[in-house]
Structure formats: C-alpha cells, structure tokens
Amino acid sequence: MSLGDPELLELNALCNALVDGVITGAERGRLEQLLQGSDEARRFYVRALTLSSSLMQYAGEMQAEAPDAPLAGARIVRPPVWVWLPGSLAAAAAIVLAFWMGWIKDHGASVANRTELVEAAPDGEEGVARLSGAKDCRWSGAAIQPGEDLHPGQQIKLESGFAEITFDCGAQVTLEGPAVLDLDSAWEAVLQRGTLKASVPAEAVGFRVSNPSVNVVDLGTEFSMVADDAGATEVFVLKGAVETTALDNAGREARPVVLREKQARRFARAGGSEVRDRDSKFESLMRKVNFERFTRPVNYVHWSFNETAGELAAASIPGFEAKLEGAPDGLANAHAGGHLDRALRLDGELFARASFPGIRQRVSRTVAFWMNVPEDASLPDAGAILAWPLGNAGRSVTIGWNRNPTQGVLGALRTDAGRGSIVGSAALRDGHWHHLAIVLSPKTRGEQGENDGGWQLRQYVDGRLETASFKHTSRRPRVSPPELPSTEDTLWIGRAVDDASGARFRGMLDELFVADAALTPQEIRHLMRENKPATAEILAAQ
Amino acid sequence: MNSEPENPSALDRSKQLMRLMTQHQRRIFGYIYTLVPDRHNAEDILQETSVVICEKFEQFQPGTDFVAWACQVAYWEVRRARQKFARARVVFDQEVVDAVAKTAAEMIPEVSARHEALAQCLQKLHTRDRELILTRYEPGCGVEEAAQRSGRSLEAAYKALGRIRKLLHDCVSNQLSVEGAA
After folding, report:
1. How many CA atoms lie within 13 A of B70 on its CB side?
2. Do residues B168 and B125 lie in contact, with contact meaning Cβ atoms separated by under 8 Å?
3. Cα A519–A522–A523 angle (5° rounding)?
4. Residues on chain B touching A22 (C-beta within 8 angstroms)
5. In this predicted structure, what is the pLDDT of residue A97?
6. A375 contacts A485 by C-beta, under 8 angstroms
7. ω before A442 within 30° of 0 (cis)?
C-alpha cells in the first residue's frame, strides 16, 4: 500500500498524538491499521518516534550541561555517558558492573578453566501454556493448532468460538470469542477484551488475570471475567474466592477486595459498581462447553517397587524390570514401607538399572515418582535419583537434589539435561514423601550451528509447578565429554550415568512412572492422586 | 573455588561490554521506544534489557553487530514486559509490534544518521521553537510544562510541537539527501 498525502498527514498527526500521550483508542486502532498495512507507514513511524527519542537525548544533554544556555557551536557534542537518564542508566550501569564482578567472583574457576560458560536461557522460546481444547474457533491472524505451545508475550486473538488454554501451572482458561488474551507467564495473563472463564486447581492458587481496570488473583476457584471495549470489566466468582484489585486511570491499585462464590462486581475507570442482570449472566457463564480436545497416545512404564524381597523390581511392561546392584551387605533393607505399599530404599550404595530401549532419543518425556529424603541427608548423599543417556554425544539427564548453594536452593529438586539445568525452590530434605514430576520437551529452535536446540525443563513438586531458583544453559560442551560406560539404553536409579564419582542417592523412591510425552499439569495431578495414568475421558470430565 | 577477580580476559570482556553499552544505549533505547512508545515504560525495558545483555554477553560474538544483537534481546524484553505496559493506552497488538520491530531493525543505520543530522537541524530552528521543543523533552517535563514556560496555551503548544517536529523531520531528510548526493 502506497501512502498519499492525506494518509501521510494523518499518520503524522497520529504519531504526534502518540508521543504526546493524547492518542484515543480509535486513533490507536487507526494507527495500528496503517502500520500493519504499509511498509512506508512503518518507516515514517520509525522516523517520527526516533526523532522523539533523539530529542529526549539532546534535551537531557542541554539540561545537564547548561540548562538555560542556547546551543553553542554548529554541533552538539554528546557526552561520553548518556546523561538524560541519570537514574535508570546509572542503575543499569551499576547492575552491569555488579553482575559482572559477581559473576567473575562466583564463576572464577570455570572462567579460568574455560570449560563451560553460562548463559540464561531465553524464556521467550519456552512454552508457558498450550491450546488444549477448541470449539468452532476462528482466529484473527495465524491459526493456533490444538496441542500447540503458547509462549510468554504471545497474544491470542480469537474472533469467534471457544478455546481452552492450559497453563503450565495447571490453571485452565476458556476464552470465548471475540476475545484477546496476552500470555505473560505460566502464572499470569492479561485479558484485553472478551470473556474468559478460569478453573484453577489448588496447586495453581495464585494464578492471576489482569487488565487495565482490575487485577484478579485466584485463591483456589473458578471465576469469569468479561472485559468490554470501553475498558470496564465484570468479575464473577463461580466457585471459591478471588482477590480483586481495582485500577484507576493512572494504573494505581485500590485496596484489594475478596469476592466469594456467587458474588460479582463491575470494575471501570470511574469506579466499581454492581453487575446488571447478574443472575442471567451467572447462568450463561456456568454453561459447559463441549470441546474437541487435543489427545495424543502416551506410553507409560511403571515401577511400583512393591516387592518385599529379591533383586528385581517388576515393571508394568515386561523387559523393563529394574535390577538392584551395588549392595555388598545384601538387599535386606532395600524394600521398605513406602508412600503406597512398599518402596525402594536406597542407602547411598545400592542402585538399580532398567533396560529402556529408546530412552536416549530426543523426544518429550515425563518422569513422575514419590521421593523421601531424610532430614540428615548430607552432600555425599546427593547422588542422582534418576539418570539416563541423551543422544550419542556423551550427554545425559540427571535428576537429584541440588547440592550447590551457589546454583539455587540447597536441597531443591534439580534436573540437568544435556547442557541445560534447572533448580526448583522447595527444599526437599525433610523426611516426608513428596510427589515429583519432571517434564522434558526438546526445544524446536537450535543454537547456532547445532541441531541440538536444548530442552525446556519443568518441575512439579506435589503437583505445583516449581519456580526456578536457578536456570542455565551451558554454551559450550565440556572439553572432554565423558564416555558413556556402554551404548545401552539404560535408566539408572540411584546413580548417574557416569559413575566415576561413585556418588549415590540416599533416600526412598516409590511409584515411578516414565512417559514418552510431556504430560499436562492435569495428567501429573492424576498420577499423584490416583497412581495411574489419566484417560482422555477422565481428563475431559475434569 | 578460586575467586580471583583479576581474570584478565573476563575484565577485558567487562570493559568491552561497558564500552559497547555506553556507545549504543541511545540506539537501543530508540528501538525500544518505537515498540513501546511511552518514555517511562521504554526506560524500564531498557534497564531490563541492559541486565539481560550483561547476563548473555558471553553469547555475543566480537566483531558482529552489537546493536542488532542487543535489539534482539530488547525485542524479547518487550514481549516479556507486555503485561506491565498493557495497562497504558499506547500498547500495540503483538502483530503490529512484530512488524514495527522488523522495520526498526532494518532502519538502525538510517536512524543513527538521522540522529546526527538532527543536531544541525535544531540549530536552524527559531530560538523560541527550539526552547519549546527541548523543554518538552527534558526529563520530568511534558507538554504542559513546555506550554507554561513558553507562555502558550496547551492547545497552542500541541500545535506548535507538531509543526516543529514536522520541520525537524523534513530538515533531517533534506540534509541526509544532500549529504547522500555529495
């Protein structure tokens, strides 16, 4: 689309209104339309906006150098530092230095050895939710396929129909078109407009939906939000309770108000009010949608560890039995009372191996199990709980508890997969049983020059998505990747793939499941509560 | 652990990072501002971006285009910060942000040249106009302050600012075309 003079004049006026903060909603819509439809408009816009950012700099320099003096000479000389943002840039520079010096201090040895350099994983590449159900969906822009991963920052624009989005924290959101929803993380979203219904299990308490007029924080519930184009939002609590915080024009938060079951409230910039036609709206929001759900076949292998004696732990699929080894004093104490029936007691020397054809393949995988680590477990007891080889380049997956306090919470669940690592935030050395689930999904985008795009790692403790206290991806492979002891596809229980250090795990393990898919939070909760895989019918009924 | 802080290569990288950040922060801010046209939000994102650049600086290959790399980092920070500025009226749809981000990345060299040319164009302005526009953009000031200081009504100030921006835009374009032809 080529712009004529009238469009250019209009675009100029819109850019002025934008930078001066007086643009209306309708004008913004028109500006978006022009920017979306014309490269020429976008170029004009970039020139206009960067003219303003340049003027900010020059104005700042003038103020810093001589506030009332006219410009001297033919050219403004830029100072060596960007003075027009003294507060934020000084802080940024301080962070630059502090971070850098801290990094040198904390990682001096690895820098000196140059074997492994650490970088943060770009979160934008990682999924935080997926489209789990759809009914008559018409999308604005690119269509979203059932089962597709959704990323932080992604905007969901549904023209009509119903879409069910399952967040990694376990919250399920039904969006009714026309609606626009921005995904911010596994725990939060912004409803720009339209109708949303959220079902939040106990494990996902704290899930938050916000928009320009209200923030809603779930307290274990089912709630709905309806946001209109004028910026007003109605909140309905179908079950449980939510905390609502009204926002005024300037984004200032009012005192939070808890809404309970069957209560509703309208939030607008002018203030809060009762919802009109409340009962009929409640009735309409309670209607169940029959979704077409994304299902995929999932294969599970299950070790219950219910044996009372012997060196073999039976598996749900013949050929996958785990063989106990490394116990010079016999296996008398290897079978103990567990979370359910019996469990495998690992004493810091005993370990087990199970033949698992194909486990090294680069596919999504979930492991889930109950674990009990004694309160007095010390660093030498922090061997791998589970480990298996990954690919053929000497890499592996190792799951255990974190023994390095400089890399996250000591004693928290830790997964190292290839060159990526994640450490959770809940310390597990308390002598209690915890249900742990680790989801590994291969990233689709590879690092430069490599086919290996790394892994997205998610950890659940007692059904709740863990907040990572540490997360990194090593940039370079180790100088000498350790050779695998064999080419066998083996799942190791109680020790690492590379056993050179001899470190073993001390604690108890029960009801181990390995699935060849990235399980959903619902499927993980079902394993935790029922100790068996969820069927599609069970999930649909939830 | 060896906590020797005087690792020469690490310190060299630190200096290199500081030099690149000091040299190019203006360009990175300009890029962010086109995606998030609100000064305070853009400043916040610049700060977040600076932190991420520090964290990921080992990924940057010396000799390649630092600004292009930093703008990629900034783009993801903008995406991540959507909720924060979703409450402002200036937020664009993601598709628009993506389209503008692509164009802005392509125009980084041109925008740098325009910034330099703007210094000379500011000199050519009438003193009263120059004072108005620079007051408008001073940290902590806005259109109201600029109107008050210049003795204009608010409406007159908006109109004058629009006119001055147009003058500067045209002046910069003319100057670059003259320099390009020379």
Report:
1. 28
2. yes
3. 45
4. 158
5. 37
6. no
7. no
Task: Among B5, B111, B142, select the one facing A105 at the smallest CB separation.
Answer: B5
Strands A433-442 and A395-401: unpaired
Contacts of A63 in chain B (CB under 8 A): 138-139
Which residue, among A11, A96, A476, would best test binding to B if mutated, counting the most B CBs under 10 Å from its CB?
A96
Whether residue B71 has pLDDT greater than 70: yes
Q: Is the dihedral of CA A145, A146, A152, A154 positive or negative?
A: positive
Cβ-count burial of A334 within 10 angstroms (0-12 exposed, 13-18 middle, 19+ buried)? buried
Per the listing, tokens 């309708």 go with A26
Cβ contact, residue pair A188, B76, below 8 Å = no
User: Which of B46, B142, B81 lies closest to A85 in space, CA to CA?
Assistant: B46
C-alpha pair distances (Å), B39 with each of A53, A55, A94, A153, B21: 8, 12, 21, 20, 19
Name the percent of chain B in helix, strand, coil, to the closest 5. 80, 0, 20
Sign of the alpha-carbon torsion through B58, B59, B61, B64: negative
Side chain identity at residue B148, one-letter code: Q
Using CA atoms, how far apart are residues A166 and A146, in angstroms rounded to an integer? 11
**Residue A107 and residue A101: Cα distance in Å, rounded?**
10
Let me know the angle formed at the C-alpha of A4 by A11 and A15, rounded to the nearest 5 degrees: 5
By DSSP bridging, strand A420-427 and strand A470-474 are antiparallel
Q: Would you state the structure tokens that stand for residue B50, as one six-digit string?
A: 């600076």
Chain B residues whose beta carbon lies within 8 Å of the beta carbon of residue A18: 37, 90
DSSP per residue over A372-399, as a string?
Answer: EB-TT--GGGB--SEEEEETTTTEEEEE
Amino acid of residue A13: A
User: Any idea which residue has 């003079």 for tokens?
Assistant: A5
Which residues of chain A are under the pLDDT cut of 50? 65-124, 446-451, 476-485
Helix axis angle, B39-55 relative to A86-106, nearest 10°?
Answer: 20
Dihedrals phi, psi of A216, to nearest 5 degrees: -120, 120
Q: The whole model's pTM is what?
A: 0.59
Report ipTM for this prediction.
0.93
Residues of A in contact with B126 (CB under 8 A): none
